[in-house]
Structure formats: C-alpha cells, structure tokens
Write a structure and sequence with these properties.
single chain; mainly alpha; Rhopdopsin 7-helix transmembrane proteins; two-stranded antiparallel sheet; 10 helices
Length: 306
C-alpha cells in the first residue's frame, strides 16, 4: 500500500470520530444554550467553527490531493479548481492564516479562564458580550501578514513521481510569513502558559479541598495538552523552516499535519473528558427510551467545564 494511502487512512482513523464528536458537542452546547450559558462555551463554539474550517482546508490542500491519482475521480475536481486562481490563493492563504487564529484563540481561552477566576461578576458579562468581537479581530488581524499570499499565483500541479496533485505557490516567499508567524507562536505560548499557571495558583488557594483538587487536575491536564501541542507545532515549524530543502524537511513535512490536527481536534475530547454536564447530555441523547431516567445535573456557568 502506498505511503500516501497509509497516512490518509491514519488521518481518517482519528479525524472522523473527532469531527463527529466536535459536531456532537457543538450541537449539545447550542441546543442546551440556557444550561451552557457562559463565556467559555461561547469561545468553545467559535473555536470549534474555526477548527473545523481549518481541518477542511487541510483536507482540501494536503490530504485528499496526496491520494488523488491522474485517473481518479477526484482528479477532475482538482483540475477544475485549478482554473479558479482566486480560490487557490484563498486556500493557500488560509493554510498560514489559520495558524495565527488557532494559537490566538487558545490563548484567549486561557485568559478567559484566568479573568473569570479573578473577577467573575465583572469579567463574565464582559466576555459574554464582547467574545464575538474578539474572535472577529483574531480572524482579521493576521491578514496584515498573510495578505501577501494573494500577490502570488497559486496553482494545482500534478506530480508524476507520486501520481498525485499538490497546491503550490512557487514564487511565494514563505520565509516572510514565518518570520512573523514563528515569533507570534512563541509569544502566544508564553501567554498561555502564564495564564494557565496563574489560574492553577488561584485554584490551588480555594478553601474547599474537593473543589480545589478536581479543578487543579483539570487545569493541569488542559494546560499540559494544549501547551505541549502548541510547543511541538512551534518547534516543528522552526525546524522545517531552518532545514528547508533537506531530506529532514521532507520527514518533518509528514509529521506537521498530525501535530496540526492535534491542535485542531483535541478540544472536543477534552470537553467530553472534563465536563460531566456535557457527558450527561450526550448520554441522554443516546439513551434508550426504556432506560431509567436520572435527575438532571445542575450546572453553574463558572464551573461547567469541570
């Protein structure tokens, strides 16, 4: 079996359940918005939409094209979109653009947790009122750097040696984008770590030991997973840039998509893992009509994620 197909099947093995879980959790949060009426879940929904969009762009640019041979059914699709340079430039731009968005929203969520812990009555209403504006700003601001992609022509090329298609922009100076993107990633990681550590310290000072221990574990795990994935992504991005044109860069190019997917798809698993309320809603959705009914779980917006 070709390596491209093995990697594609690997993508599907975690991609399909993760995407389905994403839609399930988003459906639960939106359907029960009166229960999950907090700024955290607003951010989760916005983050989910951005991540699903990022995942779709990645599949269009890299995953599907890598297994599409010249005589495959999808070959016609790639040859046709090759006649739409504006669409190709947009997809190429989003390939870099959404890295900014993902890292920034992750940091925003960390700052949300910290501020709500510090001043719940003051910060929570402000977050719920202006979250959409912050997310909009996060999505638009990276165009200051990534708009340069539209100055170069992206195209779909057929690779005879691998019998596949690829989206490339031969004249695009990727180093100009990475020269801003890499420092941005490093700063965002530092902000996320600082916010999560501060939140952990605050939670550790809570008098109720049962609440403290449960929240502490949640913060440690969430902080560790999120920051670790971000850190790995940054290290690999730096290494890919420094080793460009070498065999090592080709190896890293195979690894980066998995790390990117980790940052994109880990959120619904974390939510299901750490939110009893979400798990309960999911269980009730799939429970048999003959299952004995249990009392509903009351949720406090401030601690719904735990």
């Amino acid at each position: 079996m070709p390596v491209a197909w093995i990697m594609f099947l690997a993508y599907l093995s975690y991609g399909i359940p993760s995407v389905l879980l994403y839609f399930l959790t988003l459906f639960i949060v939106i359907r029960h918005r009166k229960t999950f009426d907090s700024s955290f879940f607003q951010l989760y929904c916005f983050d989910g939409l951005m991540n699903l969009f990022t995942y779709t762009v990645g599949y269009l640019k890299t995953r599907l094209s890598s297994i599409t041979c010249y005589h495959c059914v999808l070959a016609l699709f790639y040859r046709n979109i090759g006649n739409c340079p504006s669409l190709l430039n947009f997809v190429m731009c989003m390939n870099y653009h959404m890295a900014y968005v993902q890292y920034a929203i992750t940091s925003l969520i960390s700052l949300n947790r910290l501020s709500v812990l510090l001043k719940f009555n003051t910060c929570e209403p402000l977050w719920r009122k202006y979250t959409w504006l912050l997310v909009l700003a996060i999505f638009l601001f990276p165009f200051c750097n990534t708009r340069c992609v539209f100055m170069y022509t992206a195209e779909i090329v057929y690779l005879n040696e691998s019998d596949s298609y690829n989206l490339v922009s031969k004249q695009l100076p990727a180093s100009d984008i990475f020269s801003v993107l890499i420092p941005f990633m490093i700063v965002i990681i530092l902000i996320s770590v600082a916010a999560n550590v501060a939140s952990l310290i605050i939670v550790g000072n809570i008098n109720n030991s049962q609440t403290r221990n449960k929240a502490e574990v949640n913060f440690i795990v969430i902080m560790s997973i999120t920051c670790l994935v971000q850190l790995i992504g940054t290290v690999l991005s730096v290494a890919t840039l420094k080793l460009s044109g070498t065999p090592a860069a080709l190896v890293l190019a195979k690894i980066v998509p998995f790390v990117s997917d980790g940052l994109t798809l880990v959120q619904p698993w974390l939510l299901i893992g750490f939110s009893h309320a979400v798990r309960e809603k999911a269980r009730l959705m799939f429970a048999s009509r003959w299952s004995p009914k249990k009392h509903s779980v009351s949720v406090v917006a401030r601690s719904a994620t735990f």
